[in-house]
Structures are given as C-alpha cells and as structure tokens.
Amino acid sequence: MAVKMGINTDNWRLENPPLESCVRRTAELGVKWIEFDTLLGFDFIEGLGFSPAVSSDTDPLALRDLLAEHDLKCSCLDAHYPMWSYRCIDYMTKAILFAGQIGCEAIATTDSEEFPPRYDKDESIRVFEYHLDLVLEVAQKHNVVVCIEPHGQLTSDPMTLTQILEQNDHPLLKVNFDTGNSFICGHDPVEFLKAVVDIKASEPSGLCS
Predict the structure, then answer these.
(1) What does the alpha-carbon distance between residue 11 and residue 28 come to, in Å, rounded to a whole number?
(2) From the CB of residue 208, how many other CB atoms can be counted at a distance below 10 Å?
(3) Are 178 and 141 in contact (CB under 8 A)?
(4) Which partner for 135 in 34, 37, 92, 143 could form a disulfide, CB atoms 3.0-4.6 Å apart?
C-alpha cells in the first residue's frame, strides 16, 4: 500500500488562521491530501476568522470548489466527539453527510481521557457499540468509512481498541491509526499497529496514518 502524505488543519489550531489559509498553505507545501476538524453550527471564533475547523453547516459545494481550486482532496473529517456521549451520534451523522457531499471517504471518531464515572470500562464499551450501530447505518447508505482513532483512555489501549472494533462487525468500521497518540500513551506504535491491522486494514481509507 502506497503511503500518501496529508495534513490536518488542527496543526494550525494554535495559530488560529482561517480555514482558507490552511487550505492554501497545504497546497503550497505540495501536499495533495487534507484532513479537516469539524464542528456543528457556528461560533464567533470561526466567524472572526480565527478557526481552522469547518462547520458541517457550511455549504459543502463551496468547500468542494475550494479544494478543487487548490488541487486537494479531503482524506478524512475529524468528528471527535467522545463516543460515550449521545451527542456523538448527531456529530458523526452530520459529518458523514457532509463528507459524502465533498467527496471525502472517511470520518474519524474517538473517546476521551475519561469516561463517565458511573460507567465502568465494559459498560462504556457497550455504549460505544450502540452508538456506532446507529451511525454505521447512515455510513452504509452514504458509503463513508467510520474510523476509530486512538486518542483517549480506551481507544489508546491495543486490547481495548481491538474489542471495540470486533464488537461492531461492520465493513465500514476501520482505524485511523495515530502513531503519535499511541507513543504518548506508552505503546510501541509498530506493535500497536500489528494488533489491529489485520482486523480493519483495507484500501484506501481503512487504515490511515
């Protein structure tokens, strides 16, 4: 599988540039793939031009034209609302619809550093299963891959991530493997990758780096 380099607009979050600036800079660097952070609705930060994220309420055709203008393709939309929250359903569903309209093949989701104290680990994982079941029904209709990214307390553990992937046995559920997050959490990224690659690897969007 050939490696294709891309840049997430989140890399500019601390600089607070407008989205158009991130798109232009990505093209200037000679990269052909871009990944967007997404949000629901609009806020004043975005309105004042201080956010590199894109709202799922934005006109998708306008964004598609912006990408075409700079000869870029969107590899993934980050819809990182914690999977234990019911709000993740709406967040991911709208990201899926938006992805389909701009020609993006995948969205990504994750959990968080902590899950609700009233739930133990197994209960949280079962909540993930239910939420993903609902979202994957939409993904199936729009042929958009839903990727789980190692980015929280449960998803950053190889055995737990494997359990999450296996309980939702769906061809559109994949992994957006974050080598940095896996290393920060104390794992060898290569060994971590080996633990999940045979479960959810596919071409082209099943396993993203």
Answers:
(1) 15
(2) 22
(3) no
(4) 92
